[in-house]
Design goal:
Elements (H helix, E strand, L loop, with lengths): L3 H6 L5 E3 L8 H9 L4 E4 L5 H14 L4 E6 L5 H10 L4 E5 L6 H7 L3 E6 L2 H10 L3 E5 L14 H11 L4 E4 L5 H9 L4 E4 L1 H4 L8 H8 L6 E4 L6 E4 L2 H11 L4 H8 L3 H7 L23 H21 L5
Helix pairs in contact: 2-3, 6-7, 8-14, 11-12
Length: 317
């Protein structure tokens, strides 16, 4: 397949692996890139020296394009950006902040910049800031959610009308059928996080992966809206957060409840009750831990089969 996204990133298929905290290390990024998609390292859960190590290991494991996802609220953002430039990274996805400050810096160094948004309004801001593409993420997603709770199916057409840039759909997409639906609505490609979080190459703890396989509809919920809206598995930590939010706890109190290292404790260390377990709604459709190559082959087959079925259908209105 050749389109705006494959041409922009020089990849075979318009499928991007989300740069998830505690899941998106060098093994996952390299595997996705080797399979024809675009792998992303999740800098949000890495100290600068750790990111540098993962970049170098990714380079050793693949000759294909890959990138780095950088939350712009990261406390050591200057060091992260310096490493990205020094290591000659060509693709950067930014999120959780305004792209106005860092986009010119990255573009000056020949880097393709993509920003994650949750509304058409911010998508237009990204276009004005000079990014090369936009990820529009519905509230079905696991992380970086919008407070408006706009679904992907409602968000993509709205963003498509607002901007001319290449558009990547995210949130609730974990199959070839979902990919086709997003592209029919106006997306040029898709970003999948949850589907790859459960892959063999994901750096997430086995306990976390197994817990995802057991999820059904309604077993996740958007929380932490006064800090950074995140979709969580319902566990003891979630119940603590939910009770505090229901009684109107202040942002300061929510920060105290969240503490430090909650996501690492849950997703990377496997503490399923006290840890923060971020995952998207599409988790309810995943029933196996698969290697990345198998996941990509399955998505491609589903996409082509669905497209053929759609093209062969005859509708009378």
């Amino acid at each position: 397949m050749t389109n705006k996204i494959t041409s922009l990133f020089k990849i075979e298929f318009p499928i991007i692996q989300g740069g998830m905290v505690w899941c998106s290390g060098w093994r996952l990024a390299a595997a996705v890139s080797n399979a024809g998609g675009l792998g992303l390292l999740g800098a949000g859960s890495m100290h600068p020296d750790m990111l540098q190590e993962h970049i170098r290991k990714t380079k050793a494991a693949t000759q294909k394009p890959f990138g780095v996802n950088v939350p712009l609220l990261y406390p050591e953002i200057d060091k992260i950006m310096d490493i990205i430039v020094k290591e000659d990274i060509k693709i950067v996805f930014t999120s959780a902040g305004s792209p106005k400050k860092w986009t010119p810096f990255l573009k000056e160094h020949g880097i393709t910049v993509v920003h994650v948004v949750s509304s058409a309004f911010f998508a237009k801001k990204c276009e004005d800031a000079g990014v090369d593409a936009v990820v529009a993420e519905g509230f079905e997603a696991g992380g970086h959610n919008g407070r408006e709770e706009t679904t992907t199916m409602a968000l993509i057409p709205s963003v498509r009308k607002a901007i001319e840039l290449p558009l990547i759909a995210a949130g609730g997409i974990g199959s070839g059928e979902g990919m086709l639906a997003a592209m029919i609505l106006g997306a040029d490609g898709v970003q999948m996080g949850t589907r790859f979080a459960v892959s063999e190459e994901s750096s997430a703890h086995e306990n976390f992966k197994q817990s995802i396989l057991k999820l059904g509809e309604g077993d996740t919920k958007l929380a932490l809206k006064k800090l950074a809206p995140t979709r969580l598995i319902k566990n003891q930590f979630f119940e603590l957060v939910n009770k505090a939010e229901c009684r109107g706890a202040s942002p300061e109190e929510m920060k105290e409840i969240l503490g430090k290292g909650r996501a690492k404790k849950g997703m990377f260390e496997g503490e399923l009750e006290e840890g923060e377990l971020e995952i998207g709604q599409v988790s309810a459709t995943i029933d196996a831990i698969q290697p990345v190559s198998e996941i990509l082959d399955q998505i491609k087959e589903e996409y082509l089969t669905s497209l053929a079925n759609l093209q062969s259908a005859k509708y009378t209105f």
